[in-house]
């Protein structure tokens, strides 16, 4: 089974569709119950796989624990975990309201940390599994108005790289995906042409291609930007 957080739209949904196309069952969560239900219906009807869903806000520790338990009750081994849940709130560090950093750390970092700890022991025992952390070019590149978002994504990349070292003896792969501007709901209302953005489907293709490599190889970091460069 493939676990993808934030799977109701955007990059998460594109990744779900790619793995479902290859016949994998899916477990996913999101905050919007209606969008999540629509995704389940669409994927199951189109690809004839099972999609297990639960509404959850992974910035909340208790919701994360509940989702982990939900997935484990399904009873299928987790082959792939895609930590995709994230939030972007623009702003400069010296101007941000109190609580913005905490909100983005909880959503962008702690959710991935907690989900990873929830599933990785079984991967280690089986000596098989792959964890994808959807980070950002903001994980290694500072930019104006990036503020706490960049801080949280820098931390996520650090977590991925530490985890990669820890998992080498257990044959568990860890890959960081660092997209630039990608056409998702985060960019709704921005008046820019589509060719200024990468496509969610391209990110999904890269994730799936990395997963299909032999056990001898792992793609550690992937950086993907719009062809015309950063926005």
Automatic annotation (TrEMBL):
User: Does the keyword section mention Ribosomal protein?
Assistant: no
Q: Which SUPFAM superfamilies match?
A: NAD(P)-binding Rossmann-fold domains
Q: Which CDD domains does the record associate with it?
A: SDR_c
Q: Any idea which UniProt keywords this protein has?
A: Oxidoreductase
Q: Which Pfam families match?
A: adh_short
In the UniProt record, does the keyword Oxidoreductase occur? yes
- What GO terms are given for molecular function? oxidoreductase activity
Its family remark reads: Belongs to the short-chain dehydrogenases/reductases (SDR) family.
Instruction: Give the matching PANTHER family.
Output: ALCOHOL DEHYDROGENASE
Name of the featured protein = Short-subunit dehydrogenase
What lineage, starting at the top, does this entry show?
A: Bacteria, Pseudomonadati, Bacteroidota, Cytophagia, Cytophagales
């Amino acid at each position: 089974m493939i676990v993808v957080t934030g799977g109701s739209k955007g990059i998460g949904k594109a990744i779900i569709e790619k793995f479902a196309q290859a016949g994998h069952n899916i477990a996913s969560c999101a905050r919007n119950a209606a969008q999540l239900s629509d995704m389940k219906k669409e994927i199951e009807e189109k690809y004839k796989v099972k999609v297990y869903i639960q509404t959850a806000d992974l910035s909340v520790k208790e919701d994360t624990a509940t989702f982990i338990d939900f997935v484990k009750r399904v009873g299928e081994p987790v082959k792939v975990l895609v930590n995709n849940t994230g939030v972007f709130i623009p702003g400069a560090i010296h101007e941000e309201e109190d609580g913005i950093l905490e909100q983005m750390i909880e959503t962008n970092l702690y959710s991935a940390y907690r989900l990873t700890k929830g599933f990785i022991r079984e991967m280690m025992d089986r000596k098989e599994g792959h964890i994808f952390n959807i980070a950002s070019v903001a994980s290694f590149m500072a930019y104006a108005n990036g503020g706490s978002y960049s801080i949280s994504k820098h931390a996520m990349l650090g977590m991925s790289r530490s985890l990669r070292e820890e998992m080498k003896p257990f044959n568990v792969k860890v890959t960081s995906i660092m997209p630039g501007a990608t056409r998702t709901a985060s960019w709704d209302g921005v008046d820019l042409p589509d060719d200024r953005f990468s496509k969610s489907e391209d990110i999904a293709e890269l994730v799936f291609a990395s997963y299909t490599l032999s056990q001898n190889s792992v793609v550690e970091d992937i950086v993907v930007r719009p062809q015309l460069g950063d926005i």
